[in-house]
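Ticket #457: bound-state structure for S-adenosylmethionine.
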Amino acid sequence: MNTHDIINEEKINEYLEKGKKASKEEISAIIKKARDCYGLSLKEAAILLQIEDENLLESLFDSARFIKDKIYGNRIVIFAPLYTSNECTNNCLYCGFRSANKELHRRTLSKEEIVAEAKAIENIGHKRVLLVCGEDPKKTHVDHITDAVGAIYKDVDIRRINVNAAPMSVEDFKKLKKAGIGTFQIFQETYHRETYEKMHEAGFKRDYDYRLTAIERAFEAGIDDFGIGVLLGLYDYKFDVLATLMHSEYMDEKYNVGPHTISVPRLRPALGSGLSETPYPISDLEFKKIISVYRLTVPYTGIILSTREAASLRDELLSLGVSQISAGSKTNPGGYEEDDREATQFQTSDERSLDEMLQVVCEQGHLPSFCTACYRANRTGEVFMELAKDAHIHEFCQPNAILTFKENLVQFASDQTKEKGEKMIQKEFEKIDDEKMKEETLKRLKRIENGERDLYF
Ligand code: SAM
Ligand code: SF4
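RESOLUTION: The complex was predicted; output attached.
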């Protein structure tokens, strides 16, 4: 395969150059058009990425908020990462797990330890987990991941396990599919080849093309639910954001399914990192622009924000287009049982607990959701996209968010969170349009109060 068909650097640069020349009127017209929620072309996205004018930026943010509300309502899906290993044979300059970091306390959790960690996560109140590990052919090969997934599903009430791991062969992806993972996430880190080579000095990850084509091999293996992204700060964000969108468009055109999610990790300081400073620092304002451009260009793709970002900024970004957040995260293997700073991948910024986070989400007018229904009812890939584009997905999401949040309140929440959460549920319940659905949701809310669990549509 010619990977130039996936990422065409000349075209990206050409669009960005032309984007600089757009008039205010043209920019305003694109921002307005995006409100129809049909998405934008790469050329239009390039124009938006070039916005510097304060008023135009405000109107970009405004459209992002409008689209977020129209498509996702005020729901925010919540998850926690579970690091199974920090052993890694790669030497990505930016990462604390890199092989050259001899100070790191290395650890690969056993199956039993992974289950214990998942139980600790469950006991905080989570239902969705993102499994993360370094790349070490001896320690973190696909069987390590599938064993972990199988053991967690069997012994813990975690209902969806997404995976962020190294690229694999079709055969290995088939094993992942069989284990029942949710989304397979892989970040290209940077789509800019020259920078990619500088950042990845050794190990399998040096192979840009093998990483770029991973999603297609996953697809061939039957995984139609995938997430992409770049590590913001490694290279010019305008190039990398447009390249991410080009990758998304390529998959959409070829397979009729775009990415389920785009993540927006921004480079964080890491103990033992090989970078003394961020090569291309991104301001908070630029970060907001990035999230907004994604929201306008691919309105049906979820946007994931992690605890890499500070509390105050995270709160603002919820309205702007983010649809999933992690909360109460630890980035070292075994971290939910024992925090070891010398074993972490990078420093988190938002250290609030899940319980605190739930209060904040409610205070800001958002509805926390622990829903895992779509994937368990086989509403993934093309089926999901069709439902999402017809806005039918709302009919399920709203009651499911209410029911899963209710479970959390009944089982895990502090009194303060319960009080705020119950008020939010009452308000959100009234938004269910369909009378039958409303009636059934009410019945299920009572059943949850009486001790039943895992009720979803
Ligand atoms: N090892 C696998 C890989 O590299 O694809 C998967 C797990 S890796 C721990 C997950 C992601 O963490 C990477 O894709 C990278 O984007 C991100 N990451 C690495 N170092 C980081 C840092 N210093 N700050 C923020 N994110 C970082
Ligand atoms: Fe290893 Fe992934 Fe970190 Fe690179 S980013 S050093 S592959 S864990």
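RESOLUTION NOTES: The chain has 19 helices and nine strands.
TICKET STATUS: resolved
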